[in-house]
Amino acid sequence: MEAGGQVVIITGAGTGLGLAVVTSMVASSKISHIFAVDLVVEALELLQAEASGKLTVMQGDISPDSGMEMNRKLVEAAVERFGRINAILLNAAMVKPLGRINQTPLKDWKCAWDVTFFASIDMIQHAWPHLQKSKGCISFTSTSITLGPVETWVCYASTKNALNYLASCIPMEDPNVKSIAIHPGSVNTPGFDKVSKDPSLSESVRSFLKQLKEEGSLLDPLVPAEAFVKVAESGVPHVLNGKMVSWEDVLNVNDRAEV
To answer: Which family does the entry's similarity section mention (predicted)?
Structure first.
């Protein structure tokens, strides 16, 4: 068993925001080790080679129906090596299916819910006793499109709204385990580019996303990543516990607020 700072698990860590969070966590003196999982791990493995033993990368499908039991393996690896888990960040998600409700196959909805929602439940159940022991925290990556209806983006938004509600209930189950859902804003990632050009989205939504890109309004993923790193380092501030908030809310909260 090794001593040190925070021990963190992050899903959906291989690209985009997840990769940015892992990159910033590796540089944090308050984080002892990161256990990261994704289907795509090339960039993570490059980072691992430079992380001085601070990063463990696992490749696999976290959805419960995959049979790979990645969530259990991540939790067991962290506890076996460090004896604790201080924080988990549930970032893995499926953006698709995109399109109108009556035109998107039910099997695609089920797949999205399995990866985004039920995999999160699975991870929480495996990590729960260890988070209780460490008085740790659970962070969810949310999205600003849950703030209001957006046509042809319904499946993704509904899975994220379910996570928002889940985050609000966790502190009621055990006050020793805190939770927060953070929406990172509009982030400049390869995933954003793919979604913004997908013909399954309505023309109005695609035009809006294109405008964000052309105006330079997209954030570098390292910017909102700092909010997720702050929570992993210091826990969820009392005033934000159980809430869905923006990345700016996390960074702007009084550092002396009760945690």
So the answer is: Belongs to the short-chain dehydrogenases/reductases (SDR) family.
Strands 178-183 and 6-11: unpaired
Pair of tokens at residue 258:
């009760």
Q: How many CB atoms lie within 10 A of CB 177?
A: 21
Query: How many Å apart are CA 90 and CA 254, to the nearest integer?
Result: 24
Question: Residue 254 is encoded by which pair of tokens?
Answer: 């009084």
Query: Which residues lie below 8 Å from residue 210, measured CB to CB, with a gap of 6+?
Result: 196
Q: Which residues have C-beta within 8 Å of that of residue 23, sequence separation ≥ 6?
A: 47, 222, 225
pTM, full prediction: 0.95
Q: How many CA atoms lie within 13 A of 130 on its CB side?
A: 25
Q: 245 near 180, Cβ under 8 Å?
A: yes
Residue ranges and CATH numbers for the domains of the chain are 6-185+221-251 (3.40.50.720)
Q: Which two tokens stand for residue 50?
A: 């430079």
Check pLDDT > 70 for residue 168.
yes
pLDDT reading at 256 higher than 50:
no
Residue type, 69: E
